Amino acid sequence: MIFPARSRRFRAHWSTRTYYEEGCRRRWWWWWSPLIVLGTGLIIGGALVAAGSLVGSGRLAGGAVEIPAAVGTSAPLPATAPTAVPLARSAPVRIEIPALRVSAPVMRLGVAANGSVQVPPLDRHNLVGWYDRSVTPGQRGSSVILGHVDSFTGVSVFFSIKTLHPGNTIDVVRANGSTAVFTVDGVQKVVKSGFPGPEVYGNVSFPSLRLVTCGGPFDTTTRQYLDNIVVYAHLIKSSR
């Protein structure tokens, strides 16, 4: 996969450079090789998913194809500088999104034999996966959790994350009994063929969370969604 060149937003906004570029320079080669194929991994995982309906033209309508107008193509930033103290490492065991009534267990994901990022089983609608080459939720850096949007048998756990708004909360229960509480910064729509790896997976200077799923136009020939939906959030507190 080829990542897009840096946008004007990178060159003009110092805070964007601080959030995305500083961490990327520190750990660039640590995540670059396996994540170059992340878009492919998601395409494989979402290859047979579609809960919408076919219209006369043969294109899919409704469901995951429809993306809210508020979802942009730029990576959202925190409205204010994050101040929460980073947490010690502890693997996630459950994710809860109150605004969407989501409560789902978290499995561990790595890299498949073909070099793609693993995804949760397609038939487990209420299951997400934490990519174990990212930090654990609450640690300094970017923690990545992936989930399916739907399948031919129904909607899946991340079907509605495209509707999240800044200020919505995401709770991640961790193995040590603590809960990392994140607030949503915004939602981004990206084309899989130009997946912005540095923005999504580059470690930032504060504890952050990325939720990734599929969506957008559906190719009925390849049975693949052509876009990814990415939710950006940052840690605001922790509790036990």
Q: How would you describe what is shown here?
A:
With about 240 residues, the protein is α+β, with helices and mostly antiparallel strands. It has a single domain, classed as Sortase, Chain: A (Beta Barrel). About 15% of the residues lie in helices and about 35% in strands. An eight-stranded mixed barrel has the order 3-4-5-6-11-12-10-9. A hairpin with a 5-residue loop joins strand 1 and strand 2. The chain is globular and about 45 Å long. The N terminus is likely disordered.
Summarize the structure.
This protein is an alpha+beta fold. The protein has helices spanning 8-12, 14-35, 38-45, 197-201, and strands at 53-54, 60-61, 92-97, 102-109, 128-131, 141-147, 150-151, 154-155, 169-174, 179-191, 207-219, 224-239.
What fraction strand?
25-35%
Give the biggest beta sheet: 8 strands, mixed, barrel
Number of domains: 1
CATH class: Mainly Beta
Give the overall pLDDT as a whole number.
79
Q: What structural class results from the helix and strand content?
A: alpha+beta
Shape, principal axes of CA atoms: globular
| Helix count, DSSP H or I runs of 4 or more residues | 4
Key attributes of the depicted protein:
two-stranded antiparallel sheet; 17% helix; disordered N terminus; 12 strands; 4 helices; Sortase, Chain: A; 240 residues; alpha+beta; eight-stranded mixed β-barrel
